[in-house]
Every structure is written in structure tokens, then in C-alpha cells.
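Hi R.,

Here's the chain you asked about this morning:
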Amino acid sequence: MGTSGGRPDIGLSTANVVNWLLGAEPYAAEFALGQARAASAIPWHFYDMPRGIPITTENYPALRPWAWVTPGRPGDPTSHGLTQRPVTDTGWGWNTSHQPDLSFVPYLLTGERWIYDNLMSQASASLLAATPTPRLETERPVINDQIRALAWSMRQIEHAAWSAVDGSAEQRFFDRAADANWNYLLQKVPEWNARHGEIAGLIYAEYTYGHHTPVWQNYMVANVAGMAALRGREKAAQLLDWMGNYLIGVINSEAKGLPPYNVITGDVPIRWNGEFLDTWAELADVLRSRGQLAETSFPVGHLQEYYRMYAGALAHLHMVTGREDAKRAFEKLFALGPVPGANPRPSTRPPRSSASSCRTSGRRTG
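And the predicted structure, written out as C-alpha cells:
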């Protein structure tokens, strides 16, 4: 899981799940269900036997699920480690920054209990992986690592909250955890606004990144916030609306010296020569001085993935808030030129729609 890049298993869902949803092809269903089965082997299943639910940070606030932590005791809220040290020779190296969602759609389309358990376990592990100190101080935040870890952890927490059995302990816990994390970010907004002025709208984790923030990882968060907001998570909608200041401004600040092609800049400096940046003109000057300013065209290479994340963020912003400036920004993005690295010829092969195409291994899956 540690390998970064434009992987087909990283995003709001995996590419194979999307293929299953779009075309109902048997091979896509089989592959997606195979990913769900693989999730059963990933060492992120931490169960609270006395309570009969996945371990929660409410019941074990100081626990960390790593092999080097001193083992704890069942039911003891002061435990720092699991009752059994996790094995480390499984071949899996799961981490929150690159974790794929392997269970959500397979569970929705099958209703299989074992997939439900995988879904709940992954969300639980996403919270347990967060460092306990800030987790205890600020109500279970998952923003204490890379910002993409925040995005994919919140994706899992929101999936669990939305999918959990009505009235269950899992539903209550993950719903509270989701609200607490979005609320923590909203509480940081006044500080970020005061510090960054007209370019505010990005999430920062200085203890990880220092003098810059990865804007593309912020696009990941914006997409997850949009997903949560469309399910009724009001605090996620508020955060996405705030992020819209950057999402809209970055493509509309050419008059201030920042060409619109810089929407897919990898990392955005947050301070220069000891001072925080707070204008689009300053941001453009710093990017130019670092040789990173895109003047006349979109960057190519791995940055093309950031283009798609940005487009998705704008689409979610418009869908959630109805903001017309988000719609205009989306249209402007595509008017600037084709997606870098994309095939200019659309596929003409229609998805299958026959009943037989919805079957795999002799069982209806969707």
C-alpha cells in the first residue's frame, strides 16, 4: 500500500468497482468482489470481544494497533496496545494515506455480512491509526498525518456511518467520529483565513509538511467532503464551501499573475522567507522563483491525476452548494484544453445491460 502514484485502487472507489457500476460486466464484478475478499486478509481487523463490535477510540482512547506497542487487556480503556501483537510478515503494509476502499460498493450490491464487517473494521483502523495525543485533545481527528490520510480515512468513516445498521453501536460511533473530525477542521478555518487571506481554502498540517501543503491532497479531501455532504453531512458541506475560495480562485486569478494552468500544481508554498503567503500574486511570484509556475499549458506526467481530482472537487462543490462560480470554473477548466494524458477518443463500446451480465460465479451480484 505504500506505493504512491496514479493507482487504479486509490480514489473515492477503485477502478474495478467503477467498471462494475458502469457496465455490469461479469469480469468487473468478479474482480471487485475479489478485492473485497482481499480486504479480509489485510491486518486491519481489530475487534472488541467484550462488546461484540470493532474497537473504537471511545472505548480505547489511547490504543494504537501496532506490533511495537505493549499489549493491552480486553475491556481495559487504558490499554495502549492490542491484546495480541499484530504479525508483521503477512506481506501487507497497510497505511491510511494509500488505503483503497475495497468493501463499500461490494457490500451495497451484495448485502454480505462478511463484507459489512470488513467495512466497519477498516473505518475503525483508520481512527486507531491516528496519533493518540491529538486524537484525545480534539475528539478523534484523523488530520495528524498526510492530508491524503485525512481524505481516505474520512472516506472510510463516512462509508461506515452511512452503511452501519440503524441504531447500532457502530452507527452511533462512526457518525459522532465523522462529525467530530469535520468540526475540528471547521474550527481551524478562522485561523487559516487570518493567515492566508485571499488564498485561504486549503487544509494545512504543518507538523508534516512544514512550509508547503500538497494542493492535490486537498482536492482529495474536497471530493470526500462532497460525497459526505451529498449524504446530508452538513459540516462537510460547510468545509467544502470554504474550500471553494481556493478551488475557484486558483483558476480565476490570471489578472493577479497566476495562470489558470496552476490548478494542478503539486505543492503550494504556505510561507516564504518566514512570512505566510496571503495573495494570489505572492503565490505566483514564489512558484515562478521556484521554477514551478505553469505559464501556457498544463503540466504533464503524474500531475494529470491532479487535474481529474480538481475537476471532481469543482463538480462536488457545485452539486453540494449550487454555486454557479463552481460551474463556470468547471467549464473553464475544460475549455483550457484536453485532460493531460487522456485519450482524446471516447470509448464507443456501450455497457452491457442484459440480465446475464449481472451474474458472476453463478450468483447475482447487482
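DSSP finds 13 helices and eight strands in the chain.

Let me know if you need anything else.
M.
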